[in-house]
Amino acid sequence: MVTNIDNEKAKLVDALTRVNIAYTRLKEQTEEYINFLKILLFEKYPIRAVTITGYTPYFNDGSACTFGANLEYPDIVFNGETLDDEYEGQIDETKEIPSKKEQETYYEEICELLSIIPEDILESLYNKHGFKLTMLKNKVIIEDFTQHD
Q1: Would you say 128 and 56 are in contact if contact means Cβ atoms under 8 Å apart?
Q2: Average pLDDT in the 52-73 region?
Q3: Cβ contact 125:31 at 8 Å
Q4: Where do the DSSP E strands lie in the chain?
Q5: How far apart are the C-alpha atoms of 147 and 39, rounded to whole Å?
Q6: 136 vs 67: CA distance, rounded Å
Q7: Positive/negative CA dihedral, 103, 105, 110, 116
């Protein structure tokens, strides 16, 4: 049975085009979700900052190195805790300082909200070699994070 190569090629090109369109939309939706999260997190929780880092580790053993982000273990600074000097002034005085138990509960809830962000999209959006994304009340800061272990 002889197949029409042009027809099969056209179907593949069409499928690839649809995948590329969907991937572009997923990247846009991820950025929208991160911006929405920034608003939600600071309205709901007594926090000063949430930081996610992502990078591709470098090993010299010949193994493939895979990008990863710390979505399950973000750095969260609650009210009452100290921020790095560069982020000082980012405190919501209207929210109380949470107890240790409240912090644990809030941490779990925030991790759940972050966990649906696709790591490969973060890699594509920011920097496959390393980035540090810090959400503050009034802005999101994206920094280079290529100097890691």
Answers
A1: yes
A2: 79
A3: yes
A4: 47-55, 68-69, 75-78, 131-135, 140-144
A5: 30
A6: 24
A7: positive
